[in-house]
Amino acid sequence: MPKTSPPTTCDATTGPTAGSPGSPSKTRSVRRRLLAWYDTHRRRLPWRVKPDETPDPYRVLVSEAMLQQTQVATVLPYYGRFIEAFPTVRDLAEADEQAVLRLWQGLGYYRRARNLHAAARVLVAEYGGRVPGDVTDLLSLPGVGRYTAGAVASIAFGRAAPILDGNVARVLSRVYLIDQPIDGTDTRKTLWRLAEDWVPVRRPGDFNQAVMELGALICTKANPSCGDCPLSGECEALRAGRVSEVPVPAKRKRPVTVHHHIIAIERRGQFLFEQRPTEGLWSNMWQMPTAEEVTAQAKAAALRAWIKSRFGLVARVVKPLRLFTHQTTHRSIEFHLWHASAMSGRLRPRVGVWRSLGKLDDLPIANPQRKAVAVLKES
Fold first, then answer.
1. 261-297: per-residue pLDDT in tens?
2. Which of 53, 64, 84, 266 is flagged as catalytic?
3. Taking the mean position of all CA atoms in its chain, how far away is CA 214?
């Protein structure tokens, strides 16, 4: 089990023992202090409602989908455009997936958009277009895990459901001085138990948002503002002078480097674009032809052969244009951008479309390909 400091008791001044939640008096103090702080310092966000208003469960679901692994500042403009285009569950369910992906492009982690779209269709088909408030029902929706289910249930329906994201885990780890790797199985179990113990029956949604807000604004990963923290008197990491040591980061494997060759095939001022497969990275997004199965040292002749085999076109590879890197969770992708001219041949049926670079608004394109398009416009 994760170590806590000290490990033998569980009272208002020590961490939880293995298998036990925090002390009742400490939990009550945390709740009182956090809610009072939140009432004064809560940010005004478009998916949050005033204290006397009822949250829209659909908007909460959309916001939580967008906020997964993404900062609030990044999400704000995307959320506004998304809700304007799809103001209700039914609007989203009836939308074409490409329209959903277009509004999501640039936000990353596109599987979230596809899952949210699929969830909307389930909600219309099985729940009459309403978002359920029961955690079990929420967990049955595509892309909804324990965190999202708890967030929607607590914020939109006032259910005392726990949440655990990066911000919450950091706050808990410091308050209880949990000094084992944050991704460990036992550590996660302990953190979930503590989160469940913390969440109150009264105002659970506000409380959960308060913990996340504290992690985002005060109990930050680097340079936390401990002097402004409402939980400084409860924080065992602060008391021990070990705030900078926790949470203990997860052990990360070094990303594998792979090479993708983007070939900008031009014909009479237009460029060829193809749709990616329905599974895998950037699924169903559009891209310029990209060879992922050739070596980093690919020569022009190899790329010409690849173009002929895949598209039926005879092309003359003119020159390499740019090399840039894109990082994903597990891979470091080296993108080699080439420019080629289609000299002859007929494009195979249903393998791509020709577009001028100024008319791509209807095609959802992921960030690396958008960068390549920007390079072409400058060249």
1. 999 999 999 999 999 998 888 999 999 999 987 766 7
2. 64
3. 19
Domain boundaries, the chain: 24-245, 256-378
Q: Which residue has the tokens 């959802």?
A: 364
Q: 7 — phi, psi (to 5°)?
A: -95, 0
CATH 3.30.1330.60 fits 24-245, yes or no: no
Amino acid at the residue 142: P
Query: Active site includes 196?
Result: no
Structure tokens, 168: 């919450």
73-110 burial, b for 16+ CB within 10 Å, e for fewer? eebeebbeebbeebeebbebbebeeeebbbbbbebbeb
pTM for this predicted structure: 0.85
Which three-class secondary structure state does DSSP give residue 327? Answer: strand
* Assigned token pair, 54: 């009822």
Phi, psi dihedrals of residue 6, rounded to the nearest 5°: -75, 160
Separation between Cα atoms, residue 378 and residue 324, nearest integer Å: 15
CATH placement of domain 256-378: 3.90.79.10
In angstroms, what CA-CA distances link 379 with 48, 103, 327, 369? 44, 27, 24, 15
